[in-house]
Amino acid sequence: AQKITQTQPGMFVQEKEAVTLDCTYDTSDQSYGLFWYKQPSSGEMIFLIYQGSYDEQNATEGRYSLNFQKARKSANLVISASQLGDSAMYFCAIRGNQGGKLIFGQGTELSVKP
Amino acid sequence: DAGITQSPRHKVTETGTPVTLRCHQTENHRYMYWYRQDPGHGLRLIHYSYGVKDTDKGEVSDGYSVSRSKTEDFLLTLESATSSQTSVYFCAISEAPYLNIQYFGAGTRLSVL
Questions:
Q1: Secondary structure of chain B in the HEC alphabet?
Q2: Which residues of B touch A46 (CB under 8 A)?
Q3: How far apart are CA A65 and CA A61, in angstroms?
Q4: Can you tell me the distance from the alpha carbon of A8 to that of A103, in angstroms, rounded to the nearest whole number?
Q5: A50-108 pLDDT, tens digit each
Q6: Given CB atoms, is A35 within the 8 Å cutoff of chain B?
């Protein structure tokens, strides 16, 4: 069975600083994908970034980067130069082997302080 | 933004009544999913579809049924709503299961009284 663990229920960061959100995963599959989604207070789920298990380089999308450490089974999200609009819940997910379903962690609530 | 519309966006209903939630997509994606989101549980898969009339169960499928008669529409039915089904329901779509991103609709907030 696959599992995602996000150990930080809540985090604070100062505006313009970088922040790392932790995600560890467990899977016995050789091929898998890791995702991060953002859920602002308005409730929608916004895709941020994807890392495939065979990707040799860490994924980056603008201010978001994924620190992928395969041996440690970690896929941490790094947000550079935090903005007030980054305040939201952040979910890490792994793609399962049942129809490509996503298995989510419980999320980290990020608050950006001015 | 992916063209995914969920309806209704909010619904209040009574225990024992049937409820149908609709997910409509304009992307012509083959795969569609229904998740529910509850505090402390993240999102969990209810059912998914891999084509017209092709569906399968997820991890929390009890009390739910789905139908997909057209590529663009995926319906989730609570046959007899219970208070434990009070939740936020998200539809997601994907072009293919293992290579592509899942994009989510805006969600439906359902309250069963």
A1: CCCEEEECCEEEECCCCCEEEEEEECCCCCEEEEEEEECCCEEEEEEEEEECCEEEECCCCCCEEEEEEECCEEEEEECCCCHHHCEEEEEEEECCCCCCCCEECCCEEEEEC
A2: 104
A3: 6
A4: 17
A5: 999 998 899 999 999 999 999 999 999 999 999 999 999 999 999 876 678 899 999 99
A6: yes
CB contact under 8 A, B94 and A33: no
- Comparing alpha-carbon positions, the chain B residue that sits nearest to A101 is B45
**B53 DSSP β-pair partners:** none
Distance CA A69, CA B94 (A): 26
Q: What is the pLDDT of residue A101?
A: 85
Span between the terminal Cα atoms of chain A, in Å: 41
Burial class (CB in 10 A: 0-12, 13-18, 19+), A16: exposed
Q: Give the gap in angstroms from C-alpha A42 to the nearest C-alpha of chain B.
A: 9
Q: Does A104 touch chain B (CB under 8 A)?
A: yes
Residue B97 has pLDDT above 90, yes or no: no
- Residue B2 confidence (pLDDT) above 70: no
Pair of tokens at residue A40:
């602002």
